[in-house]
Specification:
Length: 107
């Protein structure tokens, strides 16, 4: 993780936070309040950070860190994602959440 120019060869997810290209328009309109393209997101570390931060700032107060992180990664709350073994083909939601905690909270 951490590569702003990353593109997942299997899913096409882009950037540091691995956003699916088809989700960029809707996410940007909802959380940034203006539309951006997948190409704009891929080329801008600042937009990647702004989008992720806006998403988390919106979701964490409503559902807590664990569910917000799961919703970012899987589109579903953590318990649902665990029960249904949600994965991106490389890691499970449990692994993703563990990595998130390590990278953002140092635990």
């Amino acid at each position: 993780g951490g590569d702003y120019s990353a593109v997942n060869p299997e899913s096409g997810a882009i950037g540091k936070y691995q956003v699916m290209p088809e989700q960029v328009d809707g996410l940007s309109r909802r959380y940034l309040k203006y539309p951006i393209t997948a190409k704009q997101l891929k080329l801008s570390p600042e937009l990647q950070e702004d989008l992720f931060e806006a998403f988390m700032n919106d979701r964490i107060p409503e559902e807590g860190v664990r569910d917000a992180v799961s919703r970012w990664f899987t589109g579903k709350p953590y318990s649902y994602a665990v029960k249904h073994k949600r994965s991106d083909g490389y890691m499970t939601i449990q692994e993703y959440y563990k990595n998130f905690r390590k990278n953002y909270f140092g635990v």
